[in-house]
Amino acid sequence: MFYNLASNCRYAYITNIENYINIGDLSDALSLVNTSPEANPQYDHLTGVVIADSTGADTVVKNYQRFYKSLIRYIEDSMSSTDSANVVSIAYMCPMLNGLVVYQARALYAMVFNTAASFDDESCNIVDEGRPGNNVSLRASTYCRGHFLHVDE
After folding, report:
1. When you count CB atoms within 10 A of the terminal residue's CB, does the N or C end of the chain come out lower?
2. Which residue in 56, 19, 11, 18 sits closest to 37, CA to CA?
3. Using N-to-C axis directions, what is the helix angle for 10-22 and 58-75, rounded to 10°?
4. pTM for this predicted structure
5. Is the dihedral of CA 125, 106, 66, 83 positive or negative?
């Protein structure tokens, strides 16, 4: 059920870009990166499964788009100063708020600049005031991993 519902959300969009890159189809990957899919929450009334692809994840999706553009140019040996700046910018973001793509950017950062940087993620643990005990960082990271299952308490 999850995969059927998720096939039309931005998790599938991000996964498709990664799949194109993994098989070396950089042209189709870049074409897909240059599209801007809308948030597409899904709900199955029978099972209660919710795909929580809301506009709250727009920043995470944009971070993936910026990263993949830079990664594709890196692979093609055509990385610009803007691409390098994007990698640095994403690498220094908080992964819990800005998505797991931050870790991917850090790996690319190490390759591009041939150095290992230290990233301070201690300040990333922010509690969502609206839902006590719910950690925003977990929800941002969960979105990026594609686990869109949302269970109301």
Report:
1. C
2. 11
3. 10
4. 0.77
5. positive
